[in-house]
Amino acid sequence: MNMTRGEVYTAREADEFHTAEGCFILETWNREADPAVSIARARVAPKVTTRLHRLAGIVERYLILSGEGLVEVEGMESRRVRAGDLVHIPAGLGQRIGNRGKTDLVFLAICTPRFTPHAYQDIDPEPFPDSPT
């Protein structure tokens, strides 16, 4: 990463991976050299709800790109979301999102500071599912 000139980064579709949380993630921007922010494309299949979780010390925003969902954030009434909506999730609050549409729910997950796996805390009361094969 060069901090003195602009650059274009292209995420490779082949790098998308499925998480035990229940969604697919394509890391678009998550660099140690830029600890202020990370951006990932998240994709939730129809009839899937991600696990209830929180991010310790990280503020997250969901910018909905396509599809329809139901977002739950601790302290807020559940809310239907669709393309163009932005969900602001303060650090440490429980959160999850479910796809209520017939097509994939796709959104950008924008984290400040950048997402690191140790910040993820599963708080779902349901047992953790086996990892997908």
TrEMBL record:
Pfam families: Cupin_2. It comes from the Bacteria. Gene3D superfamilies: Jelly Rolls. InterPro entries: Cupin_2, PKS_Associated_Protein, RmlC-like_jellyroll, RmlC_Cupin_sf. Residues 43-110 form the Cupin type-2 domain. This is Cupin domain-containing protein. It comes from Thiocystis violascens (strain ATCC 17096 / DSM 198 / 6111) (Chromatium violascens).
